[in-house]
């Protein structure tokens, strides 16, 4: 059984994002703040990051960007890190993807369709902790296609799963 520690509702997060946007706060700054904040909480919770195998499973949008940013900080603080990105990152998430790839060359894989899922399965066997950045508060309806297939794989993961925004698949 997985424990869930809700901090804010999806509606509250959407409202905060809307207010920040209205104030002119750049999306990349929000992403960096969210990613670093998540990384700091994860570091506090895990205590010792040295050698911990942490995998981010990231969607191509903002939640995926938050996960990649958090993973970059965790790697800089001593964790062993890898990322699997579901599709080509877009917008500010593309910048976070580039920053992670530059900081940790060869440790990120973009998978384009369900034929590439063996790469995700291998990464899940390697990991002890997974950052779930597949879907976030912007999702509408049920997950479909590659995100749904990735969520199904993630549900079989025996280690710790930390949702960056909302647990994917809810």
3D architecture notes:
The chain has 6 helices and 5 strands. It has 170 residues and is α/β, with parallel strands linked by helices. The chain has one domain: YjeF N-terminal domain (Rossmann fold), CATH 3.40.50. It has a 5-stranded parallel sheet with strand order 3-2-1-4-5, with helices on both faces. β4, α6 and β5 (160-163) form a beta-alpha-beta unit.
Cα distance spanning the termini: 15 Å
Taking strands numbered 1, 2, ... along the chain, how are they ordered across the largest sheet? 3-2-1-4-5
Strand content: 15-25%
CATH superfamily assignment?
A: YjeF N-terminal domain
CATH architecture: 3-Layer(aba) Sandwich
Overview in brief:
The protein is an alpha/beta fold.
Question: Which terms would index this structure?
Answer:
alpha/beta, 5-stranded parallel beta sheet, globular, Rossmann fold, 5 strands, 170 residues, 6 helices, single chain
Topology:
Blueprint: H1 10-22, H2 27-46, E1 53-58, H3 62-76, E2 80-86, H4 92-103, E3 108-111, H5 117-126, E4 129-133, H6 145-155, E5 160-163
Parallel strand pairs: 1-2, 1-4, 2-3, 4-5
Helix pairs in contact: 2-3, 2-4, 3-4, 5-6
């Amino acid at each position: 059984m997985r424990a869930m520690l809700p901090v804010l509702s999806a509606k509250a997060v959407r409202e905060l994002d809307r207010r920040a946007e209205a104030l002119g706060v750049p999306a990349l700054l929000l992403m960096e703040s969210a990613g670093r904040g998540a990384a700091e909480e994860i570091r506090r919770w895990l205590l010792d990051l040295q050698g911990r195998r942490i995998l981010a499973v990231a969607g191509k949008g903002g939640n995926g960007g938050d996960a990649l940013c958090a993973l970059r900080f965790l790697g800089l603080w001593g964790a062993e890190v890898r990322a699997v990105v579901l599709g080509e990152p877009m917008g500010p998430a593309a910048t976070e993807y580039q920053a992670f790839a530059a900081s940790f060359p060869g440790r990120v894989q973009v998978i384009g369709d369900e034929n590439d899922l063996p790469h995700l399965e291998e990464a899940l066997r390697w990991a002890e902790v997974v950052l779930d950045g597949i879907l976030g508060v912007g999702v509408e309806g049920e997950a479909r296609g590659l995100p749904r297939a990735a969520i199904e794989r993630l549900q079989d993961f025996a280690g710790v799963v930390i949702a960056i925004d909302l647990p994917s698949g809810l």
